[in-house]
Amino acid sequence: MNILEEIQRNLECYTLTTDDIKCLLIDVEIKDDVILKLKIPINDKEQRLKTLQQMSNLDYDDGYGSQKLFGTVWLNNGTWLERAEYDGAEWWELKKLPDIPKELQ
Fold this sequence. Notes:
The chain has 2 helices and 5 strands; from the N terminus they run H-E-E-H-E-E-E.
């Protein structure tokens, strides 16, 4: 599975694009015990382009087994994508801060 394509597909589910990425930090196991760290710092356009290009050329094994992809993608709207895993299956979950209950306002 291509990492960039997978993230783009997940963003599209929420009508978002890679332009909506504020920053990201992802670890991907490319070979046994070989971890590649991908990052996009906030407001670093040069690193952003470099990392997105690197991700577009990077595939990982998305089959059942041990988790191969870990990380968080922070978005400009205050939400984030977080990598989740259960029983060999992996996916991205969109997270957001919960609403504050009326009794606390």
